[in-house]
Design a protein that fits this description.
- It is a single chain.
- The chain is of the alpha+beta class.
- It is 52% helix and 17% strand.
- The protein contains four helices and six strands, in the order ααααββββββ.
- The strands form two sheets. A three-stranded antiparallel sheet has the order 1-4-5. The protein has a three-stranded mixed sheet with strand order 2-6-3, with no helix packed on it.
- It is elongated and about 115 Å long.
- The termini are far apart.
Length: 198
């Protein structure tokens, strides 16, 4: 048996072991700690892009919430306006009719009216009523002498064209029995007429 020899400092294997030990001492004592990789530039860029995307998403969500709230407010106001229009739609027309009523009441309150006074009062009242109609686009249909229009006229009877003076062609209005009315270009009541026939 050979006696054990102490390791020599110049032994290559001993030197390698010493280098490994020194490297181990330089670490924090955890296995593999020296080989842990720091975050790369690509990972840092991705993290920054993610943060920016999250910020954008939060901003867009806030805009969405505001848009939904604004749409709800607009819808609610529109519903309120429609309800008010149904409830107070005739307010302007009713206001324009008040002078007509006032005029009629004044005529009835006169102590000793004469025929002339009554006629003047009726004429004045009729002018007020015509003004109220015009203001609210309530227009009369008085088609005497015009061609018959089934959309605005209602024929009650027919007469021979030769019997009408002045002469009219066939299918024209010879006489208006009752005026019709339009409201905003829509027929409120057709005119009742007598029409010529050929």
């Amino acid at each position: 048996m050979h006696p054990e020899h102490p390791e020599r400092p110049d032994d290559p294997q001993s030197a390698a072991g010493a280098s490994s030990a020194a490297a181990g001492d330089a670490t924090d004592g955890r296995p593999g700690a020296a080989g842990a990789e720091q975050p790369s530039a690509e990972q840092a860029g991705l993290a920054e892009q993610l943060a920016q995307a999250q910020a954008k998403a939060a901003e867009h969500y806030e805009h969405y919430v505001r848009a939904v709230a604004e749409a709800d407010n607009i819808r609610r106001r529109a519903q309120e306006d429609v309800a008010k229009a149904h409830k107070y739609g005739i307010e302007s027309f009713a206001e324009s009719l008040l002078p007509v009523r006032d005029s009629l009441e004044m005529a009835l309150a006169a102590p000793s009216p004469t025929i002339e006074n009554l006629k003047e009062g009726v004429d004045a009242t009729l002018r007020l009523l015509a003004s109220a109609f015009e203001k609210n686009r309530l227009l009369e249909i008085d088609p005497r002498g015009e061609k018959f229009d089934p959309n605005q006229h209602q024929a009650i009877s027919m007469v021979p064209a030769a019997s009408v003076q002045p002469a009219l062609p066939p299918n024209h209005v010879a006489q208006v029995l009752q005026k019709g009315y339009l409201i905003n270009d829509r027929v409120l009541r057709p005119a009742l007429v007598i029409v010529t026939q050929g």
